[in-house]
Amino acid sequence: MSEQSPVITLDGPGGAGKGTLAGLLSDWLGWSLLDSGALYRLVGLSALRAGLSADKAVDIEAAAALARALDVQFLAEAGAQRIELAGEDVTETIRQDEIAQAASQWAAQPVVREALLTRQRTFAGSPGLIADGRDMGTVIFPDADLKIFVTASAEERARRRYDQLSATDETANLSRIYREIVDRDTRDASREASPLKPADDAYVIDTTGDNVATSSRKVRDLVVAKGWLAD
């Protein structure tokens, strides 16, 4: 994408830390940020509210129509991101486990993915874009200037999610969270439409055992090597 505004993609499973790293990249470079996972969560939320089922062909088409018509805004406020759906602040709502599971189910539907493909590409523009997702470097931006695949063990990601939830939810269960992560990994990696995998030319960063400072240094080194930042 050298003749256009630059794009950096960060793909990987949930809980690996790519969202945090994408936010840091956006801050360092002053580029726009696309949270593609949020788009799928918005479809999941909209489909749940509409009573749609991924087991019914007619509902799958209806979900694709919802995806095409999503009225979404990504708003940066005091270093944090706020997400609005038709003017409603759904930033916290779409982080619920129920919505995450629904998002993964709808993401496995080719017609839903196709409905969002063009929409995601419209986010690219000056001065540059940080695209965070699961198929940013393989499908949405295959010619991205820098592709990164962020991963971590299922055990590590389950622990992180448990620590996050247990602060406010006494019913959080580490074993259940781990099973859900393994199930989702299997579903995302084996789906026919855009399976979760690193692009052939992606840099793979494993954050297992890393803190944010260590992981961010690995990413920053890649950006410095591209000449976009001074060391």
Task: Kindly report how far apart the N and C termini lie.
Answer: 24 Å
How many individual β-strands?
8
Our count of helices gives 9
Q: List low-pLDDT spans.
A: none
Overall 3D geometry? globular
Q: What is the CATH domain class?
A: Alpha Beta
Order of helix and strand elements from N to C terminus: EHEHHEEEHHEHEHHEH
Helical percentage: 40-55%
The computed structural class is alpha/beta
CATH superfamily: P-loop containing nucleotide triphosphate hydrolases
What Rg, in angstroms, do the CA atoms define? Answer: 17 Å
Number of structurally distinct domains = 1
CATH structural architecture: 3-Layer(aba) Sandwich
Oligomeric category: single chain
Q: What value does the average pLDDT take?
A: 90
Q: Beta-strand percentage?
A: 15-25%
The largest sheet has its strands arranged as 2-6-1-7-8
